[in-house]
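Box 4.2: Ligand-aware structure prediction
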Amino acid sequence: MLLGITGGIAAYKSPLLLRRLQDAGAEVDVIATPAALEFVTPLTLATLSGRPVRSEIFNLRGDGGIAHTSYTAEADITVVAPASADFIGRLAGGLADQLLLTALMASHMPVVLAPSMNVEMWDSPLFQRNLALLRSLPRYRILEPGAGYLACRVEGKGRMPEPESIVKQVIAALTPQDLAGRRIVVTAGPTRERFDPVRFFSNRSTGLMGYALAEAAVQRGADVTLISGPTSLAAPEGLNLVRVESTTDLLAAVLAQTGSAHAIVMAAAPADYRPRAYSDEKLKKTADGLTLELAPNPDILRTLAEQRPHLFRIGFAAETQDFEKNAADKAVRKALDLIFVNDVGDRARGTGFEVDTNGGWLLDGAGVRVREIPVRPKRIVAHILLDELVRRLG
Ligand SMILES: Cc1cc2nc3c(=O)[nH]c(=O)nc-3n(C[C@H](O)[C@H](O)[C@H](O)COP(=O)(O)O)c2cc1C
């Protein structure tokens, strides 16, 4: 992708935006206007992007390519952040006297603009006219600036959105909305089973896989409900978050939320057992030790198979051996439509609990392998699983 930077004070955030875009998997080329380079140095931008930073029209690329046409041939999207009032005016006016303007004019890729300026400039009728013109063209997506304390020491509208928020909008602009109109429920995280006011038992699930699935489904346009056990993860934006604690709570929430849903992805790791008794008083430490008797928890997948037979159901299997065989048995036993199995026994493989990556095998409801999923960041694995869901929902 192309990151355009123009001469606004918010250019001080552009190197961080560059980093966040790379974190999200983008390869980023930078074109900065000469004014932008008054605010942020080419050295910083070139070091972070690992590529030369372009600013001038009348410079050929090192390989002899012509910058304003060859850059854009390689990019899927451009983000201009910050986009100055001046740049918005030139762009809306069809001018091409800067490298960034010529690069955009010589291509058709979508352009995300993050205008950022002093509030008086923002309110100026000429600026608003230029912005309205760009807004009317489907190619341009305008990010609303935030309101607050501006660099010019006044309060008002004009602040560039934070890099994380820009990254989200870029991803949304690039992601096919193939789950639009679908209601998807995702469960995530461990459950806690209490046995006195201060103690519980739980498991190693962090919720990372379920949260990645929920966020990926939001990006693809789904109406998402995320039912989460206790995790330390921040609440994702753009979805309905329901927090639960025990497996019994999880079952109740799943039944309450799936009445009109199209699919459920059960990435949570509910405890199979709960203590048979709960003590209202904290249990005292004794020299004899403590014996806890465990009762089986309700089986959420089986209950769904009985009570929500038309819901598309994706299950997860966390296994330490005989991965595909165990998962195939589980798929059939629990009447799942798809099951993803991963190895949770060996952290070094980069799959399973407490790591940012995952990988394993995806099987269908009959236990037949659909595909192997190589070890990738969980957000990528999430999209691979949703690709299969989209195919099967039709
Ligand atoms: C300290 C300083 C801060 C500025 N901040 C902004 C800003 O936040 N937004 C803006 O539109 N212009 C801002 N300007 C004005 C632009 O730098 C000026 O309009 C310039 O011509 C923009 O060039 P460009 O659009 O080619 O990058 C600022 C100027 C200075 C000196």
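In the box above, the bound molecule is flavin mononucleotide. The chain has 13 helices and 19 strands.
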